[in-house]
Amino acid sequence: MSVPARPGSVGGVPEPTPPSGGDARAAAAERLLRDRGVIGARVSVAGHEREIAAIAAPPSEMARLAVLAPELKALGFRYIALELTEPVDAGR
Questions:
Q1: What is the average per-residue pLDDT within 13-28?
Q2: What is the pLDDT of residues 50-86, one digit of tens each?
Q3: Contacts of 31 (CB under 8 A, 6+ apart)
Q4: How far apart are CA 92 and CA 85, in angstroms?
Q5: Cβ neighbourhood burial of 52 (10 Å; 0-12, 13-18, 19+)
């Protein structure tokens, strides 16, 4: 019995899942943020149409994220949502 091929697969075997929840745009957004000096930000993709970059970052990065929003949108996102979180202290 053969396995039918599906988009994103070769001979029915799925391609490797990229980091950041399986969306290459999220991985690219995390790289962009890291390259621009935003350390520790996490990016996920949200929304029915998967058009929202949901970024979790410290509140101190809000101004920098606002400046970077056009670059993040250029990765293919329609909206940028910020979840401003305090860094987790690993020693607690």
A1: 66
A2: 999 999 999 999 999 999 999 999 999 999 999 987 6
A3: none
A4: 16
A5: middle
Please count the CA atoms within 13 angstroms of the CA of 54 that sit on its side-chain side.
10
Q: What is the pTM of this model?
A: 0.69
User: CA-CA distance, 50 to 35, in Å (whole number)?
Assistant: 24
Q: Answer yes or no: are the C-beta atoms of 55 and 81 closer than 8 Å.
A: yes
Helix axes 62-73, 24-35, angle to 10 degrees: 130
Cβ contact 52:81 at 8 Å: yes
Tokens coding 42: 């996490």
